[in-house]
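Sequence, structure tokens reproduced for absentees:
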Amino acid sequence: MLEIKEVNTAKQKKQFVKLLFNIYKDDAMWVPPIRKDELKQLSPETNPSFEHCDAKFWTAWQGNKCVGRIGAIINKKYNEKTGKNYGRFTRMEFIDDREVSQKLIETAEDWLKKEGMEIIHGPLGFNNLETQGMLVEGFDHLPSIASVYHKPYYKEHIEALGFEKENDWIEFRLTIGETANKKGIRGAELVKRRYGFEVVRPQSNDELQKYTKSLFLLLNEAFQELPYTTPFSDKMIDAIAGKYFKILNPRFVRIVVKDDEVVAFVVGLPSLSKAMQKANGRIFPFGVYHIMKALKNPEVIDLLLTGVAPKYHTSGAAVILFAELQQEMLSMGIDQMETTGIFETNHNVISNWKNYEHIQHRRRRCFVKEIGK
């Protein structure tokens, strides 16, 4: 008999997180998150997104075995932005059993309808820097830590429950060749002369920290019209910066300024996917060793974050960012870049990859369904 339990206690939250490691324990393409980070996202005390979000979480049990989990989020800022009553399903994982997936979705839908929601979509997190979407293509490619991985049967279960495609993100592996490098350098010089742009190359993490607030304010401006996005509050900025910015290598960060105003930036991160697999969800005692080793000896750079101020979207500022980043990479013998998810309709960004040897190797999807008024 299947039983659904609401997640409230510390023990239940640990069970919620542990299921992830049980589902994927034998999967060579899964990149485990840090368990403590996952736990922090489940509680208002440690997740500042609860300031504007309501959320509940559940697990599914067959006897003494946990066989599924799901969360539901109401992002009130996003609903104010769109004027619609959206609810999100999140962190859904389950064994290959239709009863389990159906009961989990029904549980999330019932709570969302009770709270007045009319549309459910997902998988989505509290904000757009959490993992978004469900993997539907590219199960044989190792994801970056900013991407997702799911079992191939998930898509079939979700579609059987009446969900349809809302949006797709696509991901690319880029190889920097001579053509891309030369065109980038030439284009960057033209753009700098035309607009009077200057490039900041942070020399230390302390110097990078000085720009943290400016970078996130730029992200708020750049992402405001995109689906699923809401502005980052000061507390959210502090939490995200505390998680990622301390481990960044400034060599892979570039900032474009004009008259002391930040107009564009790119943050590259040495791929931590293999290191995170070795860490298996724990920083200590050995996880930190694998992560630090990967940071010092990168083979692939993940394009973690890129932002351009809307008024400079057509200026070519992004050309400067990528020309700078790829020159730094090539000086270290690195010619591989992994993009994060890009909306498949974002043809302007996707067209930039034509200068590289590239493959579009992964696709993830946000599903949507009406749940009535």
About this structure: Residues 3 and 61 are 5 Å apart (CA to CA). The chain has a mean pLDDT of 95.
